[in-house]
């Protein structure tokens, strides 16, 4: 339990770094960047407009600020990654924003994985025993095709990614498979969000990004990803 308190200085250092970046606002900025994450589409538009106003003159600063904020949200499982992905599309475009978000998602989730493995085992066993047992059984059952199962979890739109990040080291998911399946499995989700960033001005709400059709498409991709796993199960059950 005491290990959890070791996260406090890490959180303080990470927050201090973000605050330091806001104090280093470029001189050419036509406003000030607050240490707050957007929580609505209107706030996102205002932030995107501010960053776009001097991105061409201060691109390195904007990139460092964006990457730091993205990793902060991913590592400490702060909700609202969709806003960061849409912001990436508005600032960098799909060609640059999409691979950047995929990489940051994987790196940030890996930071969460490592902190959970190092500091969170006792707390998670105390407060999430049922979830750990369920995921452990699934991981053991799919041990021979674990990569497909992990991809399915990431591709399926209703999966609680934050919980998977926390529990993966506890149930024995290898770090390299964790990183790889986050990187690949969340690509469709990241692409949809980044692509929407290019149309930020015309977005009415986030439902425009995640319509029933797009969610159905993501679910279909998840089922297709499990295809090899199902074939393996069927072939092994044939006498």
TrEMBL record:
Q: Which organism is it from?
A: Cuerna arida
Instruction: Fetch the InterPro entries from UniProt.
Output: TM41A/B (IPR045014), VTT_dom (IPR032816)
Its subcellular locations are:
Membrane
Which residues are listed as membrane-spanning? Answer: 55-72, 84-116, 171-189, 209-233
Q: What is its main location?
A: membrane
Is Transmembrane there in the keyword field?
A: yes
Cleavable signal peptide:
1-29
VTT domain location is 78-197
Name of protein: VTT domain-containing protein
The lineage's top-level taxon is Eukaryota
The answer to whether the entry has keyword Nucleotide-binding is no
């Amino acid at each position: 339990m005491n290990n959890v308190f070791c996260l406090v200085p890490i959180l303080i250092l990470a927050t201090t770094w973000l605050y330091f970046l806001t104090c280093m606002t470029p001189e050419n900025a036509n406003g000030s960047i607050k240490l707050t994450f957007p929580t609505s589409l209107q706030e996102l538009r205002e932030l995107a407009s501010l960053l776009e106003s001097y991105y061409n003159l201060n691109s390195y600063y904007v990139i460092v600020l964006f990457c730091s904020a993205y990793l902060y949200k991913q590592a400490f499982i702060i909700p609202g990654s969709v806003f960061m992905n849409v912001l990436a599309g508005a600032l960098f475009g799909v060609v640059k924003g999409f691979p950047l978000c995929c990489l940051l998602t994987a790196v940030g989730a890996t930071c969460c994985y490592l902190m959970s493995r190092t500091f969170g085992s006792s707390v998670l066993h105390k407060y999430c025993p049922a979830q750990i047992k369920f995921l452990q059984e699934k991981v053991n059952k799919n041990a021979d095709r674990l990569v497909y199962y992990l991809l399915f979890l990431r591709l399926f739109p209703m999966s609680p990614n934050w919980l998977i990040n926390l529990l993966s080291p506890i149930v024995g998911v290898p770090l390299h498979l964790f990183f790889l399946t986050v990187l690949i499995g969340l690509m469709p989700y990241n692409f949809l969000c980044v692509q929407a960033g290019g149309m930020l001005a015309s977005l009415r709400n986030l439902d425009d990004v995640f319509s029933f059709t797009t969610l159905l498409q993501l679910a279909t991709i998840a089922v297709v990803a499990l295809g090899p796993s199902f074939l393996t199960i069927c072939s092994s059950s044939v006498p």
